[in-house]
Each structure stands twice: as C-alpha cells, then as structure tokens.
Amino acid sequence: MNEAEETRKIQFTGKSSYIISLPKQWILDLGLKRGDKMRISRQGSTALQIYPPEFHSRVTPKEDATMEIDAEEEPTSIIRKLISLYFLGYKKVNIKPKMGRLKPAQRTAIKGSVRRMLMGSEIISDSTSGITIQVIVNLLELSVDGAFKRMMHLAKSMLNDALLSVKEVNLDLAKEVINTDDEVDRFGFYIIRQLKIAIQNEHMLKEMKFDNARICLGYRLVVKNIERTGDHAAFIAKDLLEFKKGIKKEVFEKIQDMNNFSISVLDDACLALFKEDYVQAEKTIVRSGEITKYEKKVLDSTRSLRDDEEIYRIRRMTENIRRISEYASDIAEIVLNINIEKVLKKTS
Questions:
Q1: CA 62 to CA 89: how far, in whole Å?
Q2: One pLDDT digit (tens) per residue for the chain, 348 residues
Q3: How distant, in Å, are the alpha carbons of 84, 113, 263, 306 from that of 80?
Q4: What is the largest CA-CA distance in the chain?
Q5: Are strands 92-97 and 64-69 parallel, antiparallel or unpaired?
Q6: Beta strands 17-19 and 121-127: pairing type?
Q7: Range of the structural domain that residue 226 is part of
Q8: In whole angstroms, what separates CA 291 from the centre of its chain?
C-alpha cells in the first residue's frame, strides 16, 4: 500500500449515520482544519470521492460551453473548435450563430463530425438557430485501456484490409478502409479527452491505474502514433482507388511479408506498454530496425519490372508500411521513458 492509501474502519454513530476518520497528515497537507466542509460524491458503483469544494471547482471543467460562429465561417474551422471543446471535457456544447441562422453546410458539417469523430456525443437539439451537443459517455463506461485496444485493433485491421484490397483489386474494400479511418480517430479523440481531464483529477488517474500525470502525456503520444498508422493504411487504399490496378504477385508477396512484420513489431510495442515492460520495449526498438531488410527485398524484386508507374506505386506502399515499424519504435521509446524510474529503483 502506498503513502496515498490507508485502510480505516467505518463506524456507526447516532441512529442513521456512518463515519470514517481521515489521517491527520492528509488534512494538514491540504491546508484544512476542524469545521471545514467537504464534498462527497459517488463514483459509479464502486468508489466514493471526498474533496474540498474549492478543489472540485478548480479541477472539474464547466458543464456547458457556448460557441458563437460567423455566417461566413468555414465548416472546417467550426469542427476544429468543436473538437477542442470536446478535448477540454465539456459535457454540453451549444453552437449558435452570431447573427441570423446557421447555414445548411455548417449544420451538415457539425452533425457529420459528431457522428464520425466525437465518441459518446449526441445531438439533442438541432435547428437553424443552433445545435446542442451532449457528451454522455464517461470513464466508467469505456476505460482508456479499453478504447486504446479497440483503436489498435481497428488500425491493424485497416492495414490488413488495405493490402487485401490491393491483392484483389477490390475498390469497395479500399473505400471501407478509408471510412474506418474516421472510427480510429473517434477512439483517439475520446482517449485524448479523458487524458486531459485526468491530468487535473487525481481520482481519474487512479481509475486509469496511472501513477502520475506524466504518463498521460506518454499515452497522448502513443495515440498519435496509432492514428498515423490508420492514416498510412488509408493512403494505401487511396492509391488503389487512384490507379485501379493490382501489383505483380511475386512483388506483392514480399510487400505482404513486410506488412506482417510491421504489425508484429507494433503488437510488441503495445504489449510492452500494457505490461509496463522496459526490457520488452528495448527489444522492440532493436527489432524494428529489421524492417530495412524487408524493404530491400521488395525493392530488389522490382528490378525486372518495366512499368514505371507500378514501380512508383510499390515504392509508395513500402514507404507507408515502413512508417508503421517506425511508429512502433516510437511507442517503445515512450514505454522506456515512462518506466525508467521503476528500472532504477530495482537496480538500487
């Protein structure tokens, strides 16, 4: 048990109240004294939170936010502002025109972004005079680890499906890969939102099983790398839609081997993250460098090709796949940074 935890017995007093004592040092550390009031809130079905009222008002984001937009404001600008408010942890966002009415293009963009990007959000009011968005999902319903694992699974599926679409020259599957990229981003935005809230709330940090707020920054960087993984899978799919041609079988098989290797390294990096395994992370960084061997085999196999366009496409595919291995190495480095202090403690 660490210094921030103690076990105290619940006692019964009077006819209908239970009381529990608090450690003296905790009270002194928080600058509290006899007679000060404390807030008690229930956190789901398994936890209670006790805090001074001033602390609660300082770390809890405001419930509502109102965003006024100009009639000529571009939909992309509105969406960027909406995502920023989502990240800040607001539970309700009101979007209103400064003057007149919302334009159809603005309304369509807002509703589309809520559906495609903002997990746990629902539109509860929609008219030309404004749109209200309610965020109903919270940490207890979907943990950061749970969201990250689903995000990771989607990104890997995108890579495999992108390669399959090229192999079969399946344009419909390529389109599905591109659409799935929005789903990956939805999980990423949700995780970032929860991390930003947790940085200001020690209770949420404990719910996530994070030792300190610094780990949130590490996870934020990991999420960005997984988002980029999905982006590169989408690039491969877009290439097929552009050229509508497959790749020579003997070359494609080597590209498939390269892709399988990149995914396996990414798996190793994420496993090291979940296990908080410093040694595994070091091994992953070393192993990720082997991607150059696979890339060389692919490029060597193109020497017999005479179609410059096909050679160009193959080089673009190998570049996208090599980036995945590089992202795996970046994630492993983050694991090293997060867990270095644990290694030093074991050594000492």
A1: 8
A2: 445 577 888 887 877 788 888 888 777 767 778 888 887 877 655 677 777 765 544 444 457 899 999 989 999 999 999 999 998 888 899 999 999 899 999 999 999 999 888 988 889 988 888 999 998 765 456 788 888 999 999 999 999 999 999 999 999 999 999 999 999 999 999 999 888 888 877 777 777 778 777 888 889 999 999 999 999 999 999 999 999 999 999 999 999 999 999 999 999 999 999 998 999 999 999 999 999 999 999 999 998 888 899 999 999 999 999 999 999 999 999 999 988 877 676 655
A3: 6, 10, 31, 45
A4: 91
A5: parallel
A6: unpaired
A7: 144-339
A8: 25
Q: Are residues 127 and 201 both part of a single domain?
A: no
User: Which domain CATH number covers 306?
Assistant: 1.20.58.220
Q: Whole-model pTM?
A: 0.74
Q: What is the dihedral of CA 187, 192, 198, 204, to 10 degrees?
A: 10
